[in-house]
Design brief:
Length: 298
């Protein structure tokens, strides 16, 4: 069966794969998938949607779905096993967030469950021409001449950078790039770019030379020890901790963003354990590693 799945996957184009993944996620979490989900989500006809469901069953997962006359759709069988997704709740949550961004007065329901409200911070302004130039430079391994604004100077500064990755934090987007002025890899806030960058020649500073980016690091969380046993067990349950801890894989270049997103601080502890709730179990290890690379925020 696995060999048949691999052979089928080799011949599936990206759009079809996305539709198959939607089938799995909606069926697994909502208990029912219909052609309407695919029609509304991808703008395809009912016949194409029906072919997609049948092809998914025939080529990839014949035992995953069964038609239910009462539900007027396909429901997951007791033997359902995801083959294109992981069955993790965050996959469904991401779909709900994406769905919410598509909903409008003229398009009230798109992919599935619609009774979801998303609280998001206001987006930072990023000029399309700037983003296009950055993406092109990243794809082709080229250098960029940019104009960049900072809080330290009212005048824009010209820099030559070699971007290799985009970074999405809860509050803003960055681009990770080699900076020729600093002769080091740095993060640049995308909303601080002005004017369209000039795309230059190929860069001799690729991603693999960015040591901080390529250094894996684990952030280990635990319930705040100052909480009562009941409170700690509740926090451990909230975060799905195993044996009292949650291990979050990250990169050394991104660990400060991750810590900030959790409202934690490497240099201080909130006086109220009920407010903080979690803390960094490997705090000293993280601090020492960041300090050795001059990345520790003061």
């Amino acid at each position: 069966m696995i060999e048949l799945q691999q052979a089928a996957l080799a011949n599936i184009n990206k759009q079809t794969l996305l539709r198959y993944q939607l089938i799995e996620i909606i069926a697994y979490w909502e208990g029912r998938i219909t052609t309407n989900h695919l029609c509304n989500g991808f703008g395809i006809g009912r016949q194409q949607a029906s072919r997609d469901i049948n092809a998914y069953l025939k080529e990839l997962a014949p035992n995953n779905l069964e038609y239910d006359m009462q539900l007027k759709g396909y429901k997951p069988t007791v033997n359902f096993q995801p083959v294109l997704t992981k069955g993790h709740i965050h996959e469904y949550q991401q779909l709900l967030t994406f769905n919410q961004s598509l909903v409008s007065k003229s398009n009230y329901s798109t992919l599935g469950l619609r009774e979801v409200s998303t609280v998001t911070p206001p987006p930072r302004l990023i000029e399309p021409s700037i983003m296009r130039a950055i993406i092109r430079a990243m794809s082709d391994g080229r250098r960029l001449e940019i104009e960049y604004l900072s809080l330290n100077s009212p005048e824009p500064e010209t820099r030559v950078i070699a971007p290799h990755s985009l970074v999405d934090t809860p509050l803003r987007w960055h681009v990770r790039a080699y900076c020729e002025k600093n002769k080091a890899y740095r993060d640049f806030v995308l909303s601080r770019f002005i004017n369209e960058p000039d795309i230059l020649d190929y860069s001799p500073n690729p991603l693999i030379d960015d040591d901080d980016w390529c250094t894996p690091v684990n952030l280990v969380l635990e319930a705040d020890p100052r909480l009562s046993e009941h409170q700690k067990s509740l926090i451990e349950r909230d975060y799905g901790m195993v044996q009292g801890e949650l291990v979050i894989p990250s990169r050394l270049a991104l660990i400060n963003y991750l810590i900030d997103s959790l409202s934690l601080d490497l240099n201080s502890i909130n006086a109220q354990p009920n407010y903080q709730q979690i803390c960094i179990k490997n705090l000293n290890e993280i601090r020492e590693t960041l300090q050795s690379r001059n990345l520790l925020k003061v």
